[in-house]
Amino acid sequence: MGFRLPRIVTSKQSLKRSLSFSETSHVVPKGHFAIYAGEVEKKRFVVPISFLNHSSFQTLLSQVEEEYGFDHPMGALTIPCGEEAFLDLTCSLQS
Length: 95
Hints:
This protein has a three-stranded mixed sheet, with helices on one face. Strand 1 (32-37) and strand 2 (43-48) form a beta hairpin. The protein has helices at residues 7-19, 55-68, 83-94; strands at residues 32-37, 43-48, 77-79. It has a domain at 30-94. The protein contains three helices and three strands; from the N terminus they run αββαβα. By secondary structure, the chain is an alpha+beta fold.
């Protein structure tokens, strides 16, 4: 009998792949926007605009605005939180 990974781990890995497909392409599909997340090394993600409707994502954006303002030198919204924390949040919004 083989070992099965917990469903949350596999869904997070799948989400990570789908959110970060933009690493090889700078094209942002219609209905999505680019965002950089990470504490030290910023990683680019493309997320659905529908995330803006979720209160937890709005709270994160408000906290970023209060602490860092709207100056985003990377050309897209930058969120200085850990990649895992960002993935946890976006994973919860997908379900």
